[in-house]
Specification:
This protein is 42% helix and 23% strand. The chain is of the alpha/beta class. The radius of gyration is 20 Å and the shape is globular.
Length: 296
C-alpha cells in the first residue's frame, strides 16, 4: 500500500476534523433551516425530483457549500444565480458527482434523485451519469464527425447497431434544433461548426443517452446574442422532456428561461422561489440587492 505523505495526511486530517465538526452541528443546522423555511425564503415546488438535504461540500479543509437544503422540480427549469465563487458550479457538479474526480474533496449531508441517494454505495457512478447529462460553459465537441460526437456515449455503453445509432443521431439533433443545419454533413468534423452550433451539438450528445436530468453550467456565456437566443428557445422546448438545472450569471437569462430560481451567496442558499416571484418581489433584501445590480 502506498504510504501517504505528511502533507496528504495533514490535509485528510483537516477534512476529517471539518466533517466531524459539521456533524456535531448538524441538528442545529436543521433547526435553522426549519425556522427560516417558516419565513418563506425557501419554497417547495410541486413534483420535486432533485433533493439537496443539508448538503455541505469541502475542497480540502476549505468549505464551499453550507447546509444547502431545497428541492428542484421535475420537468421544469431551475436557475442557480449568485456572484462568482458562491458555490453555484460546485453544487451543479455535485449532482452528478463530477467533483469525485478532484483530489481531497468531501461532503456532508446528501443529494437525492427521487428517493435514491446519489452517494448510495450500490449505485454505480457511470449509471448515475447516464441519468444526468451535462453541458459545460465552453462547448467541447470531440475531434470527430458530427455523427460520432452525438453517439459517443452510446458507443461507450456498447451500442453498435447501426439503425439504433442512426435513429439516436436524428432524434437527438432534432431535439437540439440542429438537424436541419447539419443533416447533409453528418460525416464532417464537428470542429467546423460555429460556436452556437457546437454548443447545440454538445446538448444533442448529452441527451442521446436519454437522461432524466440535464445540467447546464453557463451554456451561453461564450455565445453571441443570436446563438444565445437559440439556446434559450431550446431550453424552453427541452423542459417538456427533461428536468433542467442551469447556472447563469445573466439575470435576464434566468428570468427568461427558468421556472424556479435559487440565489446563492458565499456558499449559502439565500432564497429559493418561483422565478417570477423572486424577480418581482424577493423575500430577502440581499436577493433584491443582487438582482437589481447593487452588488455582484
Amino acid at each position: 500500500m502506498k504510504e501517504e505523505s505528511p502533507m496528504e495526511q495533514t490535509l485528510e486530517e483537516k477534512i476529517r476534523a471539518s466533517l466531524e465538526s459539521k456533524n456535531k452541528l448538524a441538528p442545529k443546522a436543521e433547526n435553522k433551516i426549519s425556522r427560516e423555511s417558516k419565513e418563506s425564503f425557501i419554497q417547495t415546488p410541486k413534483n420535486p425530483l432533485i433533493h439537496c438535504e443539508n448538503f455541505s461540500f469541502f475542497y480540502g479543509a476549505t468549505q464551499s457549500l453550507y447546509d444547502i437544503h431545497f428541492s428542484m422540480p421535475e420537468k421544469q427549469v431551475t436557475a442557480i444565480i449568485g456572484p462568482s465563487g458562491c458555490g453555484k458550479s460546485t453544487l451543479l457538479r455535485s449532482i452528478n458527482r463530477m467533483n469525485d474526480l478532484i483530489d481531497f474533496v468531501a461532503h456532508a449531508g446528501d443529494i437525492k434523485i427521487g428517493s435514491q441517494s446519489i452517494h448510495d454505495s450500490e449505485l454505480e457512478v457511470t449509471e448515475l451519469r447516464k441519468r444526468i447529462g451535462m453541458v459545460f460553459q465552453k462547448s467541447n465537441p470531440f475531434p470527430k464527425s458530427i455523427y460520432e460526437n452525438v453517439i459517443y456515449g452510446l458507443r461507450m455503453a456498447g451500442q453498435n447497431k447501426r439503425s439504433a445509432l442512426d435513429e439516436a443521431v436524428e432524434t437527438s439533433l432534432k431535439a437540439a434544433a440542429l438537424w436541419e443545419e447539419v443533416k447533409d454533413r453528418l460525416q464532417q468534423s464537428a470542429l467546423g461548426l460555429s460556436g452556437g452550433q457546437m454548443q447545440r451539438l454538445c446538448i444533442a450528445r448529452a441527451i442521446a443517452n436519454r437522461p432524466e436530468i440535464l445540467l447546464m453550467d453557463e451554456p451561453c456565456s461564450a455565445l453571441d446574442p443570436i446563438a444565445t437566443a437559440k439556446i434559450e428557445e431550446l431550453i424552453y422546448e427541452l423542459k417538456k422532456d427533461y428536468t433542467i438545472v442551469i447556472v447563469t450569471h445573466n439575470m435576464q437569462q434566468a428570468a427568461r428561461v427558468s421556472d424556479w430560481t435559487a440565489f446563492f451567496f458565499m456558499g449559502r442558499l439565500i432564497e429559493f422561489d418561483g422565478t417570477k416571484k423572486m424577480f418581482m418581489s424577493p423575500t430577502k433584501k440581499q436577493t433584491e440587492e443582487y438582482i437589481t445590480g447593487r452588488f455582484g
